[in-house]
Protein 1
Amino acid sequence: SNRISYTNNNNLIWYNADDAAFGSNCLHQYNKNTGQTKVYTSIKAFTQVAVSGNKTYLVNIEGIGVLENDSVRYLYKYPKNAANVKPYDIKEISPGVLAVAGCNGLLKFTTATNKLDTIFSVNNACFGSIWKYKDYIFWGSYGYGYYIYKNGRIKAMPLDKNEYLLYCHCFVEDAEGYCWISTNRGLFKARLDDIITNFETGTTPIYYHYF
């Protein structure tokens, strides 16, 4: 498989995968309750999935849309001359507001208006997974570290001494209050309280334990 998108609704796992029976790189849905897999043969573009309200939203290199039956009804299409817009993640960050991370920055899609806005971009960098912790939105980049976004404010977070955190992939919270961050050069963990305090005040250092 290429990349997996988890949803928090109905125990569904969405992923893109090659499938000899249906052609390459189709969107798949696995139901953890039933153990059944559904293949969306008409959705072949590299696709990420999020749920908002009672609708399933899809983003790919063509645009953003909703799943209807077995296909996509696009709500917003990227311009034909748009640069690299390959999306790596989509998450609902507040009711009716979806964040999209990809190679054209961190974007915000408002479902009520079908309007797409840019939250942040830097030097054509690609942004990866989006993770929501309370009111804080974490996202990593490929070459520019990780960032936190809250209420319109964006901050580039401190790096480790070797700057391996310049290339971040995903964020996972554990039961002991730590955030685990994967990178190109190993795995890090740091206290979430320290990260959040640093975002809010800029004074508390962040200790990163490196694996």
Protein 2
Amino acid sequence: LRGPSGSGKTPLLNIVGGLESPSRGHVWVKGQNVVAMSEDKLARLRLSTMGFVFQNYNLLANFTALENVEAPMALAGQRGRKRRQAAEELLELVGLSDRADHYPTELSGGQQQRVAIARALANEPDILIGDEITGDLDSVTGFEVMDLVARLNHERGTTVVFVTHDPRMATYARRLIQIRDGQILSDL
């Protein structure tokens, strides 16, 4: 999803992820109408099917990188050693196995973003939803993050829906939806 600030990208992304309700219409995920779901059922669907990467990372300040990645797995009921091993593998996937015991304030912006991506992948989601995941990063780190996201799509088959206003990052998309003033201008 691409468009200028204030165009409606984030609200649309939040509707796709079931974080906001549309004023009309339906959103179907895995054959289920997200709009008609109870909050509990919707939370379970998000936990098992979707991974979210927010622009401001939303890492838990009192948790290490490893504990941040483990958190969604704990919510899903995964226990002990298996959870720890899976979190360690995800941090290795994003190139941060050597920073597992560091807290968010001890990590650079790019490292925090990678932890957020690892956390989003913790429950092996079918859909990865990213809101301006490179917005606060320098160009080199931004391209590294997008390379990682593209690799996840290619190697794991994870559907990736992301918002950007940066035309360079939009080149990673197989499908580009242009938005302005809450309206879809094009869908290529």
Protein 3
Amino acid sequence: KISQVPLSEVIGSNILDFIPSQKERMSAIRRHKLLLRGKVEKTQSEYKLRLRSGEEIWVNVSEVNTLWKGEKAVLTFASDITSNKLAADKLRESEARLNRAQAVAQTGSWNLDFKRNILTWSAESYRIFGITPETPLTLESFFARVHPDDLNTVIHAWQAATQGAPYDIEHRILVGEEVMWVRERAELEADVDGSILR
């Protein structure tokens, strides 16, 4: 998009003229001063620009100190990242809706990366298991929360699932001092060679 801005909008202008946020403008000025004084050689940042048409776009800005006609200057490169920002916003909104739906339904979701043994839980799964959100998890840390009387059954069902059997099981878990029943179902995804990925 930036490449489509008419030259008449850019020639004789400073990128600072297009930054609508006072805070971002001041931050850009500080970066320019650091560059001109030789304190840093280059900087990189993201912020919003407002074109003369009124349209607002997000840019990734790289700046380097240089010489222009024998004087210190700041050379600025800006790339339009508006579509990436909008996609990220939509993804965050979608994730928020999914988290809300799971909370209402009291249904969590999870993903196990087989090769790295990293278990990723949704916010509702953390709540169900009574674990602080973002606590790093593995398959073994999940097994540690299964009720001892159900552990062998769960491990057997999981091993069978890795061989192609459906994983659909009800069992107890320990949430602090409380015993709770959960139902778990999973779909396993394999690569072209049949090795389980997740």
Protein 4
Amino acid sequence: ERNGDRSVFVRTPCVNNPEVEAETIRRVGRVMDGLADVRDLSLYYDWRDEPSVGSFTLASDSCFCAHCMAKMRIWLQSRYGDLHALNAEWETGFTAWEDVQPLTTQEALDRRRAGHWNFAPWHDHRAFNDMTFARICGAIKEEIVRHDAEARSGATGTQCPSVYGGYDFSQLVPVCDWV
């Protein structure tokens, strides 16, 4: 990151990659099929212990892969409506949606050190990652329920709310039966 290389923030695998998301759901289905004979012993299903977007509560807990950037731009368009509104909020000068890139955490900190306190390009990326995480957790829950209509599922060892990483529990809790 010190060299401005954003490739260090590319998460592999990334659940915004449609192939990865589909394989994740298929894997959950295979696990649920394997549990069919002992389903009456199952009270709760745990999605994963201490899941995170990438690196728990580190400043690098985000993803800049092509899949995330493409989906984030669509999300930003629905949020801001047009590029002019985004540029006004972010204090940027993008000329095309394909060029829109959020700030890394270090870039946001560098902005602050320079006296520029607009963190919208960083915050929107964090908000998008929170939405992504809640979305895939919801998809996992739906697959579990597809195999066991009485299933209750959630995550254990969740990360603390934090400006870096962690979760937006207001998005995660609605898709959980328990945490």
